[in-house]
TrEMBL record:
<feature type="transmembrane region" description="Helical">
    <location>
        <begin position="49"/>
        <end position="68"/>
    </location>
</feature>
<keyword id="KW-0812">Transmembrane</keyword>
<dbReference type="GO" id="GO:0016020">
    <property type="term" value="C:membrane"/>
</dbReference>
<feature type="region of interest" description="Disordered">
    <location>
        <begin position="1"/>
        <end position="23"/>
    </location>
</feature>
<keyword id="KW-0472">Membrane</keyword>
<protein>
    <recommendedName>
        <fullName>Small integral membrane protein 8</fullName>
    </recommendedName>
</protein>
<dbReference type="InterPro" id="IPR026686">
    <property type="entry name" value="UPF0708"/>
</dbReference>
<comment type="similarity">
    <text>Belongs to the SMIM8 family.</text>
</comment>
<dbReference type="Pfam" id="PF14937">
    <property type="entry name" value="DUF4500"/>
</dbReference>
<keyword id="KW-1133">Transmembrane helix</keyword>
Amino acid sequence: MGGGSSVAARQDSIPKAAHEPAAGDGIKSIRTTSVFKAVNFELYVKPNIVVMGFGTVAILCSAIYLAYMKSQLKESKTYVAIGEDDSKVLLLKKSKWD
């Protein structure tokens, strides 16, 4: 009754791997979920010089701003003290000679 043809049909319906991993494919060849790909976006996209440049400039600007704020705090004649009621108070620096 055509038993041989049904076995061949079942074997054809089994999905084969669409892409066999080859040397050099890296993490792109691993089966993952879309959540993993969304969280680890940088692993799956080609390097982009424009985005990399923007990120580098943004981090450098942030570091320069933090250094500027620290220098301004050191130059000012104020400091932060903690009061008896655990509140922070901005006070002027005083010399022991004043």
